[in-house]
């Protein structure tokens, strides 16, 4: 087989469909992962599908998002997830073990394998050469049931790396540079594949920082080849036998090409409130900073925390700010303890938090009012930190650590000599926070433990040919799933309870939305470009469905959210002429004739007495699934028991 890395993996996993850009293909899925915030729903759906055991090579259930345990809800979810893993043959990663993507890279991800995960940053595993895609929980449940995962055959963008990163510049700056060039929807429908002589200068965790945040471009995934660096990393993780070489052929052709000279990259920052709003740190340095947060699945590897430790060594964090650190995994912490570098962090005054997502998803460490918070994370959407008027900047660990010392946003090149760090040749392997799957004869009798906050799934009924109702809300471009279904310490514990969590839909935009939607008996949402970017949370479709939303009509959709809408029976429609967006207002009464959803759709605006043409990107299968009322009833009828 010839081609690019992405083509080789896709073509090696196609079970149905045509190998042509834009055509739908069904892929065999080798591995799955879930995290607790999306996992409870995914496993409720897996249970509803009704098969005795997962049918993948490997499925892992991680607990890393919801770890505050302010009452019974989080621990009940964790207990439920642990019992599910035991019952259905999954690996279970206990809370405290680390962040799903960091752990998966360390312990399970393999070059050449397909992986889908109920988290949008699943492409982190692309750093090791896996074809790793973020998806809604239901799609992961379906993959666990052994059914293929469908994607539009992507365009492959080759990103040619040359040169070598200068001192004080790191992998985060590379992906920020990519975002500076293509912004938050430049990757939609595409795979970003890295190649060229520069890649050998990047270790696997550095590559993973780049593929992780490729998600913010809207890309289906990002992938690196598997080379000697990959081999060295896997050997250091005592997984050398799982390594395979995987590189693009010399004559491989990319649909698009981006050239990026690593030697020319400089420290960058994404400004509030979009990961695509990127500027050089040197242009904005000097502003007072109230918080620095290091961690998240983008920048919490051993390499990143060693850099932070060595920059902070011998200093005290500026008294105007506080510094939090969430290590990516327990392996990272064990190394920092063994090397003594943990002392540098603690002596400098860093607050070492749990090995978990933490402040990245608003689980603690919210900034103060109007604070400037400098974070090594991947998202800076308004309000996501837990403080609506905080200003979040996304940077590298180098910039974060330099800022923590100085108290103002600092270009780390001003600090002088770049610290040299020593990476271990062998990592400390201690898998005792993973609970291994039970053999089938022992797992069959395991009881599932459900707490009172775990509510059954809502019912899904077939869709009529005509949808009627009023426009419940009209929103702008780039609405994120954090806008639609916020997370954070208050709301995240409700992820297993759709009726309760629905009360927070669109909270920051229009807190009356849930009540109005229920009073009106449901209706429509009108939106702009890139509607539903960001998280994979299917609650951003499930909760609006529960409130009666029938169709979302926008200029364009983000990939995972579009799939989630289909999965839960909300019709995703787009304006044929984007200018028609202006002709509809909140409160307008609409009639939308969807028929069998094979063709374009007519929208009658009864209030304005106008007719508008709508279209959609639904495949025949999507249309069938939607008309059945969603994917769950559809799958239940088809899965081989
Ligand atoms: C995120 O970073 O937004 C999350 C929290 O990891 C989500 C998943 C979720 O909402 O549970 C994601 O990225 O998919
Ligand atoms: Fe967790 Fe943040 Fe990564 Fe999402 S982006 S998986 S919340 S660390």
Write the layout of secondary structure elements.
Elements: H1 5-13, E1 14-17, E2 24-27, E3 31-35, H2 36-49, E4 58-62, H3 73-88, E5 91-93, H4 100-107, E6 114-117, E7 131-134, H5 137-144, E8 149-152, E9 155-162, H6 171-182, E10 190-195, H7 204-214, E11 221-223, H8 228-236, E12 256-261, E13 268-270, E14 278-280, H9 281-284, E15 291-294, H10 302-312, E16 322-325, H11 330-339, H12 341-348, E17 351-352, E18 372-375, E19 391-394, H13 397-406, E20 434-435, H14 440-443, E21 466-474, H15 481-484, H16 488-491, H17 498-501, H18 513-519, E22 523-526, H19 539-546, E23 549-554, H20 559-567, E24 571-575, E25 589-593, E26 601-605, E27 610-615, H21 620-628, H22 631-638
Parallel strand pairs: 3-4, 3-6, 4-5, 6-7, 9-10, 9-12, 10-11, 15-16, 15-18, 16-17, 18-19, 21-22, 22-23, 23-24
Antiparallel strand pairs: 1-2, 2-8, 5-20, 13-14, 21-25, 24-27, 25-26, 26-27
Helix pairs in contact: 2-3, 2-5, 6-7, 10-12, 10-13
Bound molecules: alpha-methylisocitric acid (MIC) and iron/sulfur cluster.
